[in-house]
Amino acid sequence: MKKGFLVLVISCLGFISCEVKSSGVASPNENIKVNFHLNEVGKFFYTIHYKNKAIIDTSYVGFEFTNAPAFNKGFIAKVRKPEEVNETWQMPWGEQLNVVNHYKEVKIELQEKENLQRKLNLIFRVYNDGVGFRYEFPEQENLKEIFIKEEHTEFNLTEDYKTFWIPGDWDIYEHLYSTTKISEIDAKSYISKTNLAQSFIPENAVNTPVTLVGKEGVHLSFHEAALVDYSGMTLKVDTKNLGFKSNLVGSKNTAYKVKRSAPFKTPWRTIQITDNAPDLIQSNLIVNLNEPNKLGDVSWFKPMKYTGVWWEMHLGKSSWDYGMEMVDGKWKDTGKAHGKHGATTQNVKRFIDFSAKNNIGGVLVEGWNTGWERWIGFEDREGVFDFVTPYPDYNLEEVTAYAKEKGVEIIMHHETSAATQTYEKQQDTAYALMQKYGMHTVKSGYVGKILPKGEYHHGQYMVNQYNNAAIKAAKYQVAVNAHEPIKATGLRRTYPNIISREGLRGQEFNAWSSDGGNPPEHLSIVAFTRMLAGPIDFTPGIFNIKFDEYKKENQVNTTLAHQLALYVVIYSPVLMAADLIEHYEANLKPLQFIKDVGVDWSETRVLNGEIGDFVTIARKERKTENWFLGSITDENAREIEIDFGFLDEDQVYKAKIYKDAKNAHWNKNPLAIEIETIEVQKKSKLKFNLAAGGGLAISIKK
Ligand code: NOJ
Ligand code: CA
């Protein structure tokens, strides 16, 4: 708070709107208070208090354009009377069935007093678990075509928070999290570390969600909601004055970062505010800020576990490509097949049989279509991949018919190699082919630098590519799980065929990265950062932790029990059982948990957790009302107590417990697991020891 500044809250009760110099709005429970002010030169700023403590200090907003003077001062303000909304909506699939959407909203109408008299509205929604605000450019004479050079939204903080962050890369989110104070953030230190196919880190900025913990236990997470026809926002770090400032992802091809015409609304800028870590995961702020379902009934998409032709390529057991050659612009089988191709009819049938036998709904098939001989590392990737033509040893018709007979669905794969024009051109035919064969889920991929050159994965051009692909796919009853995606911003509420995505350092890094893979703490950070944005396709369930027969230098850095716990800790309506069939068949006892665990929930309870240390989540399966519990820890062994108070009154449950054995350790003894069945009830409280890098998984049935 600026010293000596008097907060003058003018109540507009009884007016539709009234002119003010300052005003405010509080959350329904009054814990969060947002105040707005105009300073002496008509600059607009806001502040936020949580439980009477200043959280966001004087933070200005404004825009710079390439075609018009800056838009940040000389404003007069009118404020509408706040409105309270309290409604409940249902997720067609999700971490819970009913979602309460309870907030107070206020609209502030700014107008330049002189000169162009341009208008800009700010809409604030204050929830009990945080704040969302967005800009609205209303229709007006002196601002029609809008070319945004930069959005200047500030988030100034009041202390040097402990921060869990990844760099503000314009092209990829697949970085390990750093834990430092804000004053110590050095995003550019990542530039030399990255061995990714695409990466561009132009500023000392972070990507969102970025999560912060204060000295007195305040937890904050900054992100955005409803990212539509706009650029992704990174947050430039002010290491001196302690705060963030929006820095939009740009393009090499234009001086502006966003092009729109009025009227339009920007995405919401969001701040989740809680006084403990578990409540961050329980917060529904991001989905709530999105518009209701526009697709109607999406019951053609069924949440599912899946296996697939995938890990074997990352291990080098088989390959995506077949060994074809491009002759006169066409792929030909010239007799050079190398015999290592993974997506063969026969191999996929093995996965179908395995899935059918183990209560797993899907099989992902990567490397089924022509083009894989020329993807990664090639400059000219347009016109290479084809999304309807299988390799000679893969019979799509036979495979889909066989899957159907076994009650399993084949998951389509579209690796676009970031050649956006080729993909856009083929989308209709590709999705129609899927519909013809009864395939309702596509995993898409955008590996490599974006074509057209000069665009980045997180800029406006690509935001539209991702969103348009999903909207088009919905017409063919296809649900989308994008890899190398744009961040999740809760659009799954509006388009519930946007089911999952990558957008983090996934399991695959454990198979091949040269930096030691994902450390044991990885998911204990991800659960409180990336996962606040939405469902994650992380591909858990690696049982052969060391896989020395394939890669001596690589391994998964967790115990086997930790891998099982991830089926509950990570939320996604599609969750892979990623390991090879033979590795599961050698471990049938722990496989039972994957067989049993649900993927679609009516309730979620985050029982305990500290960011970067540990987290325990219990979820209730919609169909069966069985509960499943997952708990993971970082590199430190620890004892956790589980309070089973979430169970129904007067019921005895059978709990099958999968826990780290006494001598288990992520590196020295990762496979040591103990499995036992006991009875539990609502009043049960039990203590468990998690090994270093360990975990705990429990299935709880009536
Ligand atoms: C990267 C994806 O994250 C991975 O899952 C996939 O196997 C490869 N691209 C190939 O598309
Ligand atoms: Ca990836």
Considering DSSP H and I runs of 4 or more, what fraction of the residues is helical? 10-25%
Give the DSSP E fraction (strand runs of 2 or more residues). Answer: 25-35%
Bound molecules: 1-deoxynojirimycin, calcium ion
Poorly predicted residue ranges: 1-14
In total, the number of domains comes to 3
Molecular structure report:
The protein is of the alpha+beta class. 15% of the residues lie in helices and 34% in strands. The radius of gyration is 26 Å and the shape is globular. It starts with 16 loop residues before the first strand and ends with a strand. The N terminus is likely disordered. The site of calcium ion has 5 residues, from loops.
Key traits:
single chain; 702 residues; alpha+beta; Beta-galactosidase, Chain A, domain 5; TIM Barrel; twelve-stranded antiparallel beta sheet; nine-stranded antiparallel beta sheet; 13 helices; 38 strands; globular; disordered N terminus; binds 1-deoxynojirimycin; binds calcium ion
Summarize the structure.
With 702 residues, the protein is α+β, with helices and mostly antiparallel strands. The protein folds into three domains: 23-288, Distorted Sandwich (Beta-galactosidase, Chain A, domain 5), CATH 2.70.98.10; 301-503, Alpha-Beta Barrel (TIM Barrel); 505-702, Alpha-Beta Barrel (TIM Barrel), CATH 3.20.20. Strands 1, 6, 7, 8, 9, 10, 12, 13, 15, 16, 20 and 21 form a twelve-stranded antiparallel beta sheet that branches. Strands 2, 3, 4, 5, 11, 14, 17, 18 and 19 form a nine-stranded antiparallel beta sheet that branches.
